[in-house]
Amino acid sequence: MTEKVLASWKDGRVRQAILDFVHAATTPGAAFVDVADRIATFDNDGTLWVEQPLPPQFDFVFRIWEAEARTDPSLAARQPYKALIERDQAFFEGLAAQEPQVVSTLLEAFARSWAGTTPEEFEAQVREWMRTAKQPKLDVPYLELVYRPMLELFDLLRENRFRVFVCSGGGRDFMRVFAEETWGIPKENVIGSAAAYTYADGRLVRSHELLGDLNLGAGKPENIFAHTGRLPVLAGGNADVDIEMLRSARFALLVDHDDEQREFAYTKGAEASLAMAAELGWTVVSMKNDWTTVF
Amino acid sequence: MTEKVLASWKDGRVRQAILDFVHAATTPGAAFVDVADRIATFDNDGTLWVEQPLPPQFDFVFRIWEAEARTDPSLAARQPYKALIERDQAFFEGLAAQEPQVVSTLLEAFARSWAGTTPEEFEAQVREWMRTAKQPKLDVPYLELVYRPMLELFDLLRENRFRVFVCSGGGRDFMRVFAEETWGIPKENVIGSAAAYTYADGRLVRSHELLGDLNLGAGKPENIFAHTGRLPVLAGGNADVDIEMLRSARFALLVDHDDEQREFAYTKGAEASLAMAAELGWTVVSMKNDWTTVF
Q1: How many domains does chain A contain in total?
Q2: Interface list for chain B against chain A, based on CB atoms closer than 8 Å
Q3: ipTM
Q4: Do A173 and A261 have their domain in common?
């Protein structure tokens, strides 16, 4: 490594806090962390890539559902297709709030689209979307909207023998399609919301059911423990659904979207986490002030 | 590495089949396997350590339940405490067969013992058992009854950039206590049957519920996919509950317990897998003939 670590992070309090934490965790002393315990976990939407106007996976799903509603017009009168056609964003925001009616309606639609499909069929659909869809404001493919500073943080952590996991409310299988090529993170280090699959006659087929609950809120540390047997030493997030994961870590990084120029400026869905950050001394990353480059 | 690979494996057809498979998987050609896809999965009880007269975790659990029945004699009339006191092994064998009545009775007893406990409390109990309990026939601590040839196989696989996972019907959290020191496998590479935990007030507490189903039969490839996003390239097992996992792998290794002298000789619970091995050409490991050293 001749390149500077965290090269896209502006010199200052936040960059230094990260470097200090990693140094302390890997240097004999009171804050040393055994290699075995070096687990770092990151939310995806809004933490690793753009989540406005909606997390990119919605764009993927909506294209599928729009095509279904064109094929079967009777769907247009039903949720979630109705909300989709009417661009009723508030309906979909009910998902993050885990409103039971919204969640069950969405799960039914997911099952209608994908129950009975194989992992390979799903991957092909995601790859087609990756190839063709663009983020509406920034007009580039979504995979070009991954935050470069966070990839540099992954590099720093890996060089210091942390195992990096992504832990998102988004779809486990959706993220796993691009995890390795985009994040350098093996599929097995991706934790997300997921459908159950059944194995029969030598193949895996997606079922109608969700596997466990949505990976949000308290579900994040619960699923991190289920998956890794540990809670994270370092965690990164950007929203209220990340609060429990951030609380469960020794070092918490909260990404603040305050850069209307280069990305988006909003605090919606992050009000409680920003308040918690101030109360608990989490490290708040200003996209505007702490990152020299965003993408 | 100056030491011979698979040093405790006798030269012969089985050892050579393993070496040939690993060579082909890592050498450009038709059987090459991308590094990302190099997942190997192994059952634990009877595949990595002694499972007679019952899997060691039963010994751990039974000591806890016996203590509970002494404290609360009313339990002695109820299952599973009754079967335990009467040494009714057939009752417990109903677990592998997933008899609903047996499973629900056992799950109730697990919840009675451990609901509300933390991972640290459970780990302390397992460590105490590791320190004090001995296998009745062989009269040594259970952790000394891990098969050395299988640890050498793990080494060979890791040297060839396979990621090794343990995938057992046994308890995920039970195995994770000793996975790193015994197998050299990080906790996150252990897949097993598990209780759900809830995260609240900054801590994890075990709930009354099982997380998903028991990790047996079709549940093994299902859970391997859920955990890793892939099916295994190589799998090792020893029993009928491993059939689906072994079928899901390109190279399947079936451990045959035919060594009464050094371990145990039995085919009970493995009849169908031995027949399947003959039919599908799996590599059957004779403990008696293929291993120069067992422990």
Answers
A1: 2
A2: 36, 39, 119, 163, 172-173, 176, 180, 186-190, 194, 196-200, 202, 204, 211-212, 218, 221-222, 225-231, 244, 247-248
A3: 0.95
A4: yes
